[in-house]
């Protein structure tokens, strides 16, 4: 079955009981036991719920995993995954991971004895330098957030295996439609389901999936023990959203490619970050390991001091955190999504104060381009008026 068919028919896509072509929302916390001490397949909805199970089987199938786990947020999925480690363990982390991942490690796990080193994970020499006797895992995000850095997954996995580390990949930006890290050798894939998988900016959710039975058993244990599970309503919404992932991703990346070229040619723009541009340093690796370049674009204005005026002047494109919805969203990471990372750390990883991140939606491209054009005009007009 091709991936775009799996999006619709993968996992458990119907109700086995009634034949309903949409899995019902099993809005229940508990299940009748016919005999004392012999529960059926479901016992209590934190441990398992049929609507959530249908979604979990789907994400596992899409990523090529043996088991999938759905959580109440991306961070809950990351929390359960980081719980695999013990005090004293050390992780190596890409240097522009999602701000919340950094905060979780720094403020929650570090006080309990987990340590980490952030490096430019594109450089094997930096990975080597960060390695200690206690290093247990390599944690990567590609394309990264917000700089769209591309990490060669196959090369990283080979290195991690040599050092007996597990590789964890946050695949939120690419989705399994564009990239399947487990198939490239990674051990655990994480997602914020809030973004492209949900696709409509109407829910918060997360996923973990693995192709390793022993890791699956442990993640299942932490999912149930910590308890950040996804409810049946949101599980259903996600399954509904995933059905259109292929058409949405194609539309996102078509628009993103056009806007990236438009921005790159604009005299008001100093720099554009988009892996689909031939001069992006990760272009060739992205072309090899991804089926497309995705819907995220970042850029800097020539005059950084006009950043606020520019983003505030947009009318169709919404100034908001988050990404991956059908509507275009724009934000300034240093002030918004990445504000929890100290400025020195942000700057060291290349995130300038004026960097703008654009999640390109699936609106008509003419409306998006016209909106950017009028915002450039407005931001520059105010400058000459002062
Ligand atoms: C949003 C995001 C997360 C966190 O997910 P939530 O659903 O907001 O908890 C993790 N990783 C990446 C790359 C994200 O964009």
Bound molecules: pyridoxal-5'-phosphate
Tell me the CATH topology of the largest domain. Aspartate Aminotransferase, domain 2
CATH structural architecture of the largest domain: 3-Layer(aba) Sandwich
The structural domain count equals 2
Give the SSE string.
HHEHEHEHEHEHEEHHHEHEHEEHEH
- SS element count, helices: 14
Q: Please state the overall shape, judged from the principal axes of the Cα atoms.
A: globular
Instruction: Note poorly predicted spans.
Output: none
- Number of distinct beta strands: 12
Decide which structural class fits the backbone: alpha/beta
Q: Main β-sheet, in a few words?
A: 7 strands, mixed
What does the radius of gyration come to? 21 Å
Percent of residues in beta strands? 5-15%
Report the average pLDDT across residues.
Answer: 96
Distance between the termini: 60 Å
CATH superfamily of the largest domain: Type I PLP-dependent aspartate aminotransferase-like (Major domain)
CATH uppermost class of the largest domain? Alpha Beta
Task: Report on this structure.
The chain has helices at residues 3-9, 50-63, 74-82, 99-109, 124-130, 153-162, 175-178, 213-226, 232-243, 245-264, 283-289, 307-313, 343-348, 365-385, and strands at residues 67-71, 90-94, 115-119, 135-141, 166-170, 188-192, 206-210, 269-273, 296-301, 318-319, 329-331, 356-359. The chain is α/β, with parallel strands linked by helices and 386 residues long. The protein has two domains: 3-243, Type I PLP-dependent aspartate aminotransferase-like (Major domain) (Aspartate Aminotransferase, domain 2, 3-Layer(aba) Sandwich); 245-385, Aspartate Aminotransferase, domain 1. Helix 3 packs across helix 4 and helix 12 crosses helix 14. Bound molecules: pyridoxal-5'-phosphate. Pyridoxal-5'-phosphate is lined by residues 73-75, 98, 100-101, 141, 145, 170, 172-173, 192, 194-195, 204, 206. Pyridoxal-5'-phosphate binds at residues 73-75, 98, 100-101, 141, 145, 170, 172-173, 192, 194-195, 204, 206.
């Amino acid at each position: 079955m091709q991936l775009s068919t799996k999006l619709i028919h993968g996992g458990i896509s119907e109700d086995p009981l009634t034949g309903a072509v949409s899995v019902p929302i099993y809005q229940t916390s508990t299940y009748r036991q016919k005999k004392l001490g012999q529960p059926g397949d479901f016992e209590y909805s934190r441990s398992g719920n049929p609507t959530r199970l249908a979604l979990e089987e789907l994400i596992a199938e899409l990523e090529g995993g043996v088991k999938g786990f759905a959580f109440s947020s991306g961070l809950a999925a990351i929390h359960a995954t980081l719980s695999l480690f013990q005090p004293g363990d050390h992780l190596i982390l890409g240097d522009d991971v999602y701000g919340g991942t950094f905060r979780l490690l720094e403020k929650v796990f570090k006080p309990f004895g987990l340590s980490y080193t952030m490096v430019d994970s594109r450089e094997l020499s930096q990975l080597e330098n960060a390695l200690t006797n206690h290093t247990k895992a390599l944690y990567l995000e590609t394309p990264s957030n917000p700089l769209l850095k591309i990490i060669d997954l196959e090369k990283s996995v080979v290195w991690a295996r040599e050092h007996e580390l597990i590789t964890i990949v946050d695949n939120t930006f690419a989705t399994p439609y564009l990239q399947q890290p487990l198939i490239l050798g990674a051990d655990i894939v994480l997602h914020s389901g809030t973004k492209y998988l949900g696709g409509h900016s109407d829910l918060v959710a997360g996923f973990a999936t693995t192709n390793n039975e022993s890791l699956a058993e442990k993640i299942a244990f932490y999912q149930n023990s910590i308890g950040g599970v996804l409810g049946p309503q949101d599980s259903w919404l996600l399954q509904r959203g995933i059905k259109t992932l292929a058409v949405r991703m194609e539309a996102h990346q078509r628009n993103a490619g056009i806007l990236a070229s438009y921005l790159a040619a604009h005299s008001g723009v100093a720099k554009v970050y988009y892996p689909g541009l031939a001069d992006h340093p990760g272009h060739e690796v992205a072309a090899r390991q991804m089926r497309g370049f995705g819907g995220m674009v970042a850029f800097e204005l020539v005059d950084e001091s006009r950043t606020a005026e520019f983003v505030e002047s947009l009318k169709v494109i919404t100034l908001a955190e988050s990404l991956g919805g059908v509507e275009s969203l724009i934000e300034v990471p240093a002030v918004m999504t990445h504000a929890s990372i100290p400025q020195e750390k942000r700057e060291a990883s290349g995130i300038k104060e004026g960097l703008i991140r654009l999640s390109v939606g699936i609106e008509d491209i003419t409306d998006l381009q016209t909106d950017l054009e009028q915002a450039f005009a407005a931001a520059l007009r105010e400058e000459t008026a002062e």
